[in-house]
Amino acid sequence: MKTEISYAFPKKMRLSSRKEIESLFSGADTFVAGPYRVFYKAFPLKETHACACSMTAAVPKKHIRSAVRRNLIKRRIRESFRLHFPVSLAPALSSRNIRLIFLCLYLPHEVRPFEPLEEKMRTLLERFSDMLEKGIDLSPDPVG
């Protein structure tokens, strides 16, 4: 039986909970990967969670003044995540029953093309996968 890889990015994978986003800014682990500063938390997966990974993207208004350009960057970040998540990170999360939430903060002051952003997202997701293999510190669930 062959399992089909889904490249969808449904609403349940979008991080939108105010509590979870605030918990990322207050006490999450962080690292810089290319043009992104990544805030992340990992905790045990429960039956009540909709999915194993949720992400959001943020582009500071201070860096990119135009809303059209900020939205373009966020669309590019989400698209690169959608393309690489099923192959790079989903197997590692499902095998360990861990839920990962993270926020990608875009750091450059200019709009970059899609290809470099996609490549950095792939390396970022592979870094998460490596962290899961080595063992990641689990936090308590911010929502409860």
Share in helix: 40-55%
- Compute the number of structural domains: 1
Main sheet strand line-up: 1-2-4-3
Write down the secondary-structure element order. Answer: HEEEHHEH
CATH architecture assignment: 2-Layer Sandwich
In the CATH scheme, what's the topology name?
Answer: Ribosomal Protein S5, domain 2
- Average pLDDT score: 88
Q: How big a fraction of the residues is strand? A: 15-25%
Outline the structure in words.
The protein has a single domain, classed as Ribosomal Protein S5, domain 2. The chain is 42% helix and 20% strand. The chain is built from four helices and four strands; from the N terminus they run αβββααβα. It has helices at residues 18-27, 67-88, 90-96, 114-134; strands spanning 29-33, 36-44, 53-58, 98-106. A hairpin with a 2-residue loop joins β1 (29-33) and β2. α2 (67-88) crosses α4. The model has no long low-confidence stretch (mean pLDDT 88).
